[in-house]
Amino acid sequence: MGLKDFRIVFDNPWNTYYPGQTLSGRVIIAVDSPKKIRGINVKLKGEANTCWATDRQEINHEGHYENESQTVTGHEEYFNIQYNILGSPSGGEIELPVGENSYPFTCALPPNLPSSFEHDYGHVRYTVKATIDRPWKFDHETKMAFTVVSNFDLNKETRAMEPIHMEMSKTFCCLCCGSPPLNVNVILPVKGYVPGQTMIARLNIDNKSGIIVETVKLILRKIVTFRANNPRTDTRRDKIIVAEVSKGPIEAHATADYEQKLDIPPLPPSNLTNCGIIDLEYNFKVEACVSGWYHRNLKSNTLVFIGTVPLLNYQSLILPSPTKIGFNSGDGNDAHPDKSADPTYGGYPSGYPAFSPGSGYPSSTTPTAPEPPPNYNSDIPAQIQPNSNIYPNLPPPSYEEAGWSVRSLRERGESEHVLGNHGHFAPRYPVYNFKQL
User: Fold this and answer.
1) Torsion of CA 373, 376, 381, 384, to 10 degrees
2) CB-based burial of residue 259 (10 Å sphere; 0-12 exposed, 13-18 middle, 19+ buried)?
3) Number of structural domains found in the chain
4) Which candidate, 115, 182, 186, 358, has a CA 20 to 30 Å from the CA of 105?
5) Domain Arrestin C-terminal-like, which positions (predicted)?
């Protein structure tokens, strides 16, 4: 078959959707001569998987301990929709005309989906696969992943509005005597942030000891818990540093009082709501690293929240997002949305109201993001409750790739010849453009 092009293109150029929204796109097929097929099928799937190898000791038949390696897995399926966009499996042959052909597809996403997530030990992943059903020949297949972002409004999480006040103290042993203490106090105004925002910490360090503090680190960590249930129950936890800053040294018998900023990169929102095999939380860690291998560092951490809607009473000046974020056109090449394109492709659907100026938020007439997220805390169906109705003066975010990506979308038992399986994929998450403080 003279197949020149076979790919999936989403109508949303960021390939990013919220639960309850309608996903739409096109299957592009180009052939150099008329071809006989039975039909074209699309399969849309959302699922979570976990997998890792474990080692444990077992007693063999001789009564000796030996190491046993075992792979444990977990699985959840959120939806699996399959239908023909051309022809049918039981119908007759259809002829594909010469040249490029475009076949639309659409799917209403369920309202209760966890956010996309990628990691070596597990993922929450959403894909579309298109298949050209060919009589008496191997089928052609292509696959494309897309991002789902589950709304986490920080204004509805009371703990996100609470300040952080960490008081840390430590003494160091010297022979039989303890040293005067090293005291570290850290204050942040809130516990809730969104990507693109800056955590502003105020530090007061009173080093009364005779030990040098080489550096004081501020660390934002992603804490992920994976669960498996086949062939047995197991749990695995991973801690990943997603942002870090440091300052030092602080000499012995010295003090320091300063402000430090930690920028929040693109990240999935806290909790992974509606996923039962992967949990996600974030914590803010402070570590005073002291000199001498025989002294332990002073450290502490506290829970923080990463959301998709920022706190409105904190750092409220948000600018319209720049149109710098590219998207995948389905052929592996990056492109940029055309600002003059149909708005159903770029950001808001046709007829969507423009922003009006309000306190703290400048107006914007050229939104550059997918449809804003629904309010999932409402009993009203998700697709008719956009966030812009709740926060009309909130400029939309951009959607940027997270640092963790996957090199292959190939599933167990799937053919190695599926197009798109070996391309880079990283989920995109909302990032706000805050005015620099």
Assistant:
1) -30
2) exposed
3) 2
4) 115
5) 178-311
